Amino acid sequence: MPKTDIARRVYNHTWKLDPIVRSLLDTDFYKLLMLQMIWGLYPKVDATFSLINRKTSVRLADEIDEGELRAQLDHARTLRFGKKEMIWLAGNSFYGSKQIFSPEFLRWLAGFRLPDYHLEKRDGQYELTFHGKWVETTMWEIPALAIINELRSRAALKAYGPFALDVVYARAKAKMWEKVERLKLLPELRISDFGTRRRHSFLWQRWCVEALKEGLGLEVFTGTSNVLLAMDNDLEALGTNAHELPMVLAAIAPNEEALKQAPYQVLQDWESYYGGNLKIVLPDAFGTDAFLRDAPDWVADWTGFRPDSAPAIEGGEKIIKWWQERGRDPRDKLLIFSDGLDVDMIEEAYHHFHGRVRMAFGWGTNLTNDFSGCSPWPNPQLEPISLVCKVSEADGRPAVKLSDNPEKATGDAAEIRRYIRIFGDKGRVSHKVTV
Amino acid sequence: MPKTDIARRVYNHTWKLDPIVRSLLDTDFYKLLMLQMIWGLYPKVDATFSLINRKTSVRLADEIDEGELRAQLDHARTLRFGKKEMIWLAGNSFYGSKQIFSPEFLRWLAGFRLPDYHLEKRDGQYELTFHGKWVETTMWEIPALAIINELRSRAALKAYGPFALDVVYARAKAKMWEKVERLKLLPELRISDFGTRRRHSFLWQRWCVEALKEGLGLEVFTGTSNVLLAMDNDLEALGTNAHELPMVLAAIAPNEEALKQAPYQVLQDWESYYGGNLKIVLPDAFGTDAFLRDAPDWVADWTGFRPDSAPAIEGGEKIIKWWQERGRDPRDKLLIFSDGLDVDMIEEAYHHFHGRVRMAFGWGTNLTNDFSGCSPWPNPQLEPISLVCKVSEADGRPAVKLSDNPEKATGDAAEIRRYIRIFGDKGRVSHKVTV
């Protein structure tokens, strides 16, 4: 047999594009859950999503070639859900339930494609926006972020020789395994991969997910938010809902009272679609303090909370106290931590809350994009940046997130002031956002 | 193009043996240099080589399957020097000299094959001996050691899943690169690979050699003792001579005076074949103190010394002092350190001797077989052992090495006492031998 597979070599020469997103399932599971609800309840709402690079010192438009970015975005627009993928969505159990997606929704989904995008350069950044129906634009969030982050990794490694690349990935694997060994010491840990959007690359995320599966076992590593990786590796697809739900509902609210009720309207809408372990509250869109203060009592009956912008211990304690005030036993409840976790933080929260509340960890950037110290020479381009794709407008009105951390707030300044006037500013404390 | 290369898959299924030694050039360069001299001056001498496992707590016969060992040894015996290899030996420059190997020797070498071996199990160890003409048996040393060490690595990793293996090698690469980065800080370092005999595996040695080539550059990484890797990677093939020369000459010496002169006879024999940078003295076969004390003055005109069994600084200082006593300037001289080096020892010797003498480092086991801490779980089988293949008899008489370190002495106890009576015991100090 020849040493060189000539056909493969020639095929490799003819590559026009090495696609970053090869499947519409290469997205976070919560997008599909939210999509079904948006499709059912808000099919006519317009929503604009916009890329926001919180780390403006990184000039993305200088690091990433516009032609390559357009080629990747264009390629993603050619994708449809595949036959096998549709069958899996219909036949698989999610969170213990069969047929979580209705046949009508799946029929619609089979024809889905990503809508057009608007891209221009400004001040060294890319202005990347997606205008259109919410039920279409929402699906750009994850692929857009994954594409930009992976193009940035590729640019970072462009000048590396094959040997240096081998060292980079060897070190990253060794580093990843150190983390696995530390996490193995936490026997009741429940952790999952939430790292799609910020991943170094698809192949690296896949390696990390397989590492966690083999290293921690399925008792501890409970699944991945990435639907494609869940399908391919027989893992649970995990995730619930995101800030875009209260943000859009608040933006389109006809009056201030409706705006104030938007966070609870979201929960009622959600409950009309999903139950059980999917009843997870994301409380911080307009500040957790305000959310808890004004919450109807039935909110305390939900399965759990995902505090997403306060430090884990502080945020968790606040919710535990609130459950207790509402007469619920926190030991029956679930806290999902997913904000900028690293192993130190996971260990700390695990020990802090162990026995007092059920916990789960959704591990993101530090799982799938931690190459710090892995390059043979310093390369800041390998460091992840705080890049998000947020809903910025709904039906022509500005969308706002206040967050518990003012550094993570998004939206027009005047509109933020208005929201603060409505929800209050209590409990919002600045913390540096790195990822 | 098909995802699976069916022909390759089927070919892989039909593997009967994955040979460890695939070429007679997969040996240390000094064996070829010594071989030419043995062929020219001692073609009739018989010499027996014997495997010695200094770490008897490791029961090699339990770790390594006898059938596999025989299959590998038998395969090595089928090898001949290839046409390309012979052309390279004839046409390449070694140590700056063309045609270092004579046409007559090369003609003889073209027909060379490894002689038979004798293998049996005793007390959990393998007794592996090579009887025959010195000019044949000498060539077994390196392949025999490489085969046993690699079979041991393979056994150590037999139960590992593909993912655990990936982590093992990722960690080993990361670890190796840490060493490269430390060595890069020593700008005038001259270092080479001497790790063939103790290597984890051939492929791993190749990776390490390529790592050093790319990481340190050819100014610092001066070459490899492995002839095959030197040829394949356009590196210098390095090495001079070994203890077997004085050991055999001492064993066959007709009287005590000739025995006492054997170490210097070796040098005169050597000089009749090689000059320049190949004029390196290996002084410790019967103790460096005795060697220096009795050395004729012309020995001080040789290019350098390779102190091989004393701690680097102590051993180096002893030789520098001797050069000075003999009126030579150590700054014109070369010290080659090659005994159990790790990066700490290299750094220490480099800084200690910098500017006072020329230095070169021959890096062995810690370069090509350092998997300590790389396995996801503790695995003592991955730790290298102190395995040697030494001449044990010449023309029916026992061969002895005293060494500067009594722990490294080899030979019959009564005969060792006789040698100590002849050469003295001064300066011989025990140090733990780990590799």
UniProtKB/TrEMBL annotation, chains A, B:
| Enzyme's top EC category | ligase
A GO molecular-function term, please?
A: nicotinate phosphoribosyltransferase activity
* Biological process per Gene Ontology, one example term: NAD+ biosynthetic process via the salvage pathway
Entry's Gene3D superfamilies?
Answer: nicotinate phosphoribosyltransferase
Q: Which UniProt keywords apply?
A: Glycosyltransferase, Ligase, Phosphoprotein, Pyridine nucleotide biosynthesis, Transferase
> Which residues belong to any copy of the Nicotinate phosphoribosyltransferase N-terminal domain?
25-149
> In which pathway is this protein known to take part?
Cofactor biosynthesis; NAD(+) biosynthesis; nicotinate D-ribonucleotide from nicotinate: step 1/1
Q: Name any one Pfam family assigned in the record.
A: NAPRTase
Modifications after synthesis and translation: Transiently phosphorylated on a His residue during the reaction cycle. Phosphorylation strongly increases the affinity for substrates and increases the rate of nicotinate D-ribonucleotide production. Dephosphorylation regenerates the low-affinity form of the enzyme, leading to product release.
Record's protein name: Nicotinate phosphoribosyltransferase
What is the organism field in this record?
A: Devosia insulae DS-56
**Which gene specifies this protein's sequence?**
pncB
